Fold these 2 entries.
Entry 1:
Amino acid sequence: MAELKLVKIGGNVIENREALADFLEDFAALNGPKVLVHGGGKEATQMAKKLGVNVQLIEGRRVTDAKNLELITMLYAGKLNKNIVAQLQALGCNSLGLTGADGNSILAEKRPSKPIDFGFVGDLTEVNQSFFKMLLDSGISPVCCALSHDGKGQLLNTNADTIAATLASGLSDHFDVSLNYCFEKNGVLLDLEDDRSVIQTLDETNYLKLKSEGVLHTGMLPKLENCFTALKAGVKQVRIGSPKIITESVNYTQIIN
Amino acid sequence: MAELKLVKIGGNVIENREALADFLEDFAALNGPKVLVHGGGKEATQMAKKLGVNVQLIEGRRVTDAKNLELITMLYAGKLNKNIVAQLQALGCNSLGLTGADGNSILAEKRPSKPIDFGFVGDLTEVNQSFFKMLLDSGISPVCCALSHDGKGQLLNTNADTIAATLASGLSDHFDVSLNYCFEKNGVLLDLEDDRSVIQTLDETNYLKLKSEGVLHTGMLPKLENCFTALKAGVKQVRIGSPKIITESVNYTQIIN
């Protein structure tokens, strides 16, 4: 099977014009089929303030009511996604921006409102493999933002890490998928204050050990859960590191079974 | 050649939730390959106010500076386009939202800044026929908003009527294209105050005559210029009327050579 590189970038890259330009240059230079998944960053909160949209948090997590969904649809699927696509085109990378509604590409169910109602948030159910395969076979790189849909007319806010893992898993029937989580650290760190403390390889046993010891912090846990889920679903390689891992020999954390 | 229906809807449909739902139901029910092009409506002006973005007009026409471009990218490519796509999916119509940057689908050049600098406005240069054909052959209906790109990283605000005509022309190599302009009137009217005064058929000679007599008003002129350009480029049928023309036997204006 052909190799496919799936890269997820988060807020730290999205929010910094220069970092984003650097990253997109690297991404455009990757050979072979590739997919980009991007998060949203903090601009949603800033824009909510400007537009007078209330941001409600429950247990530290944002509630996506109708107005917030509208706002992130404008920001993620509009401003961020389309500027990334336009920049990639300029770099000779034929890309196509997607929400889960486009081409019925990523389906989800609205998360149950019990015990906590997080609003229009989606739990993924299905990836439209044949649609992604058609694009990739035509030399087009899908650029996915963090929105899925329920097939009944509703867009749903969805965690970008989970979209990346689910896409990687779904595409593993057709490709040897390498899943790359790029964020603000050089990898999974033993000591959050020390960027040199990158864990080279991490398997589930060690993950559970470090988790029980409290070494791994809260934000990293769902990301790592996504990694193990992807590996179990047939994804060939899962890496966590800085955006540089896709082109350079730098440190990163390899997640293994 | 197979028939292709291209439908352009303007602000009056976009701005009215019920009218839009009605139209999308009709559009989804159309058989065979089809393309939707949508304008933006007045929400851009309202949102500019909310966000404190200045709207500059020169000779009655909006100037698209960087902040206004960002705003319409959020609104047209984000909110409007993605909600249309999600609603079409719910109606069983597999659609895909596009700016001109997506799939390198619609290329343009930034309009020269002399004599008047309208900012980030695009004059169309090319339609990526093979991309549209691939989508249509796969049963996917493209949904295009009024943004093109220059291939050098810049999105460009582009008249939706012109996008519709240029797309219709470009796709005429592969399809018998029927181009339908749907707007708030029942067709081209002899008397703007009388909705029953629909001109049944209009050729260029009559158009020039009515134009010189001042019967046709300013907003209609560029739309009709687009119609004649499309016909000359091989589009089979061009119609102007209410959104109902795509499914019902209602009055409309047929533009002929």
Entry 2:
Amino acid sequence: MASPSALTSQSDDFPRWYQDVVAKAEMADNGPVRGTMVIRPYGYALWERIQAEMDARIKVAGAQNAYFPLFIPQSYFAREAEHVEGFSPELAVVTYAGGEELAEPVVVRPTSETVIGEFMAKWIQSYRDLPLLLNQWANVVRWELRPRLFLRSSEFLWQEGHTAHDSYEDAAAYAMRIHLEVYYDFLANVMAVPAYVGIKSPRERFAGAINSLTCEGMMRDGKALQMSTSHELGQNFARAFNIVYQNESGQSELCHTTSWGASTRLVGGLIMAHGDDRGLIVPPRLAPIQAVIIAVRDEPEVLEACASIDARLRDGGVSTALDRGRGSFGRRVTDWEIKGVPLRIEVGPRDLAGGVVTMVRRDDGSKHVVALDRLATTCQGLLEEQQRALFNVALARRDDATTDVTSVDEAIEAAQTGFARMAWDQIGELGEARLNEVAVSVRCIQRADGTTPVSPDEPDLVAIVAKSY
Amino acid sequence: MASPSALTSQSDDFPRWYQDVVAKAEMADNGPVRGTMVIRPYGYALWERIQAEMDARIKVAGAQNAYFPLFIPQSYFAREAEHVEGFSPELAVVTYAGGEELAEPVVVRPTSETVIGEFMAKWIQSYRDLPLLLNQWANVVRWELRPRLFLRSSEFLWQEGHTAHDSYEDAAAYAMRIHLEVYYDFLANVMAVPAYVGIKSPRERFAGAINSLTCEGMMRDGKALQMSTSHELGQNFARAFNIVYQNESGQSELCHTTSWGASTRLVGGLIMAHGDDRGLIVPPRLAPIQAVIIAVRDEPEVLEACASIDARLRDGGVSTALDRGRGSFGRRVTDWEIKGVPLRIEVGPRDLAGGVVTMVRRDDGSKHVVALDRLATTCQGLLEEQQRALFNVALARRDDATTDVTSVDEAIEAAQTGFARMAWDQIGELGEARLNEVAVSVRCIQRADGTTPVSPDEPDLVAIVAKSY
């Protein structure tokens, strides 16, 4: 029996459990410069899967990828006053390049909002150029004094979408489309995270936005993690960067813009949304390795059977890894469990003699003795079941840990172990300030049926309240 | 008939033709900070295709992707003296971050060699950890005083592979494998560029390398462009970064390392290797859009036919774009030609009445009247023919423009319009210095049969000599 003793348990010390998983699953290391991060191959493979799934959805939504420069003139940050306030203490500034001091310092992008605004203004002439739908995959820098791998790092990887439209309605509808068809859909159907969706309160809104849509996941310690945001920027950015178009009657009008992003934070969210005391649990649809074929012993006939099983599963569209049976079996099992590989296929001489192998699910540890001639279909079936089970278990856990409350005091109490749900109009500005004093916040505001409203002024809205990362 | 008048002709002014193509095909713009580049959606789509094809080959070669930090402590650049000399005037340095001056300035990576060396030293313990095969897709910064979009920019995108091995032989074999199976194969079979392969002369070698393998493409102005390099670093980097392993007898030994890279420069190479006076020519296997379906007129039955053709081609695995027939037909044809889309499918009412459409190849302008029921197979056939033709035409052009010479003077003369080939041992150090005085250089040294030698000391080697970008 494998021992999970390598990891701190979640109930003992959740932050330390997190650190242990990141280290022992070989996902990331701290970089040499404060707050930076080295993403190791297994962590990066997870990010590549996240990227691939999100990128496909972004393309279906009609946005095109482009790439804007890392360096932005410092003067750009003075143009959009509200925006710059949100970022200035976090900026890293290059003052020296090409062997001399620069006449104007350049900022390492904390986001590309400003430079993209500048180029949208250049590229957009008439209503025929709209909507302009751009997305960028890039690194950004926001100096962090209290870094945590994946969750808060001075440099992180993300995608940032930026779009320009000819009407408020079109911009709002597009932000909602990205929110639901890219982010919510990816989270629910690939990452198996049943996020609460909604809009940010005016206090929590992105600087410069007129409305911010958010997906909030519940972590296993009962805290919230913001998984994605989609902002309606109204005409604020268009005004600051002079993004205008000629309408059909030849008059000049300001565009309506949006921006939306998700980052390597999602890797941290993946760890904390599903992981257990044995390590990471990766949903099959996201897993870079869906099944690991483990030779119980390093013997020729076992290895031969493993290679043949591997080939058959790959042909069946399963991503596999092969463990060639060197070293302790228990230790190897523990290592694959820490990495959260969905299915472990144990291949030993006794099983082989009986024409079977044993498949073990990572989520519930259930063992399945499978005839060799039903390998591929059983494997795919178990992966699909596990995908559904992870979502359902996370949904039940989320709902169990969400308490309906009627006062701010009750909300604060509920937020010590989970989420609180409360009528939005009963919280008010004062209530929100009281929550914030004790490090609790309104994560999102939603309709009573759990859908995303178009504005915080709709009637009968509820607020989801929690502590957060 | 479409007029290519929008572009400067290659024979009039090649550099200006290049600039025109980059601008008119909407590939890139200059960024606001000197030397930086905005890669527009069409340029980025080409880079995404390059990435996808190279990444697949890199993974087949067993390397794993990872991500290392953008910021590197300045002190790291003092460790490998030869290496730092190659870069210091090009460095951009962050001196101010998080609202205050930094105690130690940090360098924006010009390459990740040093930080990857540091972490290899940490991760490698024993011979069982070798080979360690890493690759990274990232942006890097080398300050450019004379920037040119895609060819030389202060920030560019690239992949950099870094590997550690337990013997010289294994490291050299891996560098050769990447050189041939990743770079040469991609260039020949996807980008349709018949690169000259070989090794760099000691004078042209990468600082710190003991051997550098290179792929050199011929551009349409007869100059060379270095498309990729793969370096054997011997034990130099391992010594500088203390990358050691315990061998099977328990003794500590230095690793042998390699590094290899290719960048967004390849997009510039694509333009200049195939482009003509009508614009870009993209080989079908690389093209983000392989066929554009052009409605000759904006009429319901034409658009309906276009949509149905589009659906059938997509089902047949062809990447398509739909041109809905607004504005001048000639102008639209010119625009698609500038973008280099391999196949243009013209759909007009007269053709439709006859049950046919007209397909036009971008490379030779040949027109093919195709029955609607043979659409998908003909389209695929024409794409495959064009892929082969582009390679063969480029190969013939390369061979025609390569002159066998027997003196340095002749080599200099031949290099004014193309490449020279000359016995390597007849050039010598003095000859190479004379070439360099007139901006001509030894691009690579190869065997007489055109294959890559393992060292410049092999007998009977020939040098490929040219002007270069």
